[in-house]
From TrEMBL:
Ranges that cross the membrane: 6-29, 41-60, 72-92, 112-133, 139-161, 182-199
Protein name, per record: LysE family translocator
Membrane topology per record: Multi-pass membrane protein
Listed GO MF terms: amino acid transmembrane transporter activity
PANTHER family reported for this sequence: ARGININE EXPORTER PROTEIN ARGO (PTHR30086), ARGININE EXPORTER PROTEIN ARGO-RELATED (PTHR30086:SF20)
Pfam families: LysE
Species this protein is from: Trinickia dinghuensis
Amino acid sequence: MVSLQIWMLIVGFSVPMIISPGPGNTILATAGGRFGVRGTVPFWFGFEAANFVWCLVYGFGLSRLMHEVPAAAHVLKWAGIAYTLYLAYGFVKPSKPGKKASMPRLSALDGFLSVSLNPKIHSMIFVLFSQFLRPDVPLMQQVVQIAFVFTLLCIVCHFPWIYGGQVVFDRFNSEKSAKVQGYLFGGCMAAVALFLAVTV
């Protein structure tokens, strides 16, 4: 079993990394602002499912591959930037004349892809498993427990971003304000893509 001291270190590492502003939280707040908490649930489910899956993948060996093949991280970075720009376009693309501007609700697959193509999340999970796995505890037990706890922390830390997005933009429901929101949210996504391009 993972020791209490290691759990405290894992929580101390994970919570600030998860709750701090970044590409994932920007996307969650944007979705919350556009679709509300209820409308964001499928996207959020896919988002957290991806966190759990990637914890398992890294815990059982991808950490070694990413360390040995740096080009894999580079490919992941640019795929993530392209997908973020695709999301940005979805928020600002013009609708057909006479129809209210709207973006289709983000799906669980969109949530899964947004995590899978986010280099920051991969870096976080890579560090999580490279620092906190212990040779004296069975690997299967550690990886599953850490993946479960990390995902639970993600759910708790991501909710305020989604709810905050809803609260801030809930008052603006007219067609004109929806269009402004589309440009604002699309701009946020484009800024995230730029941030990823120059920093990660």
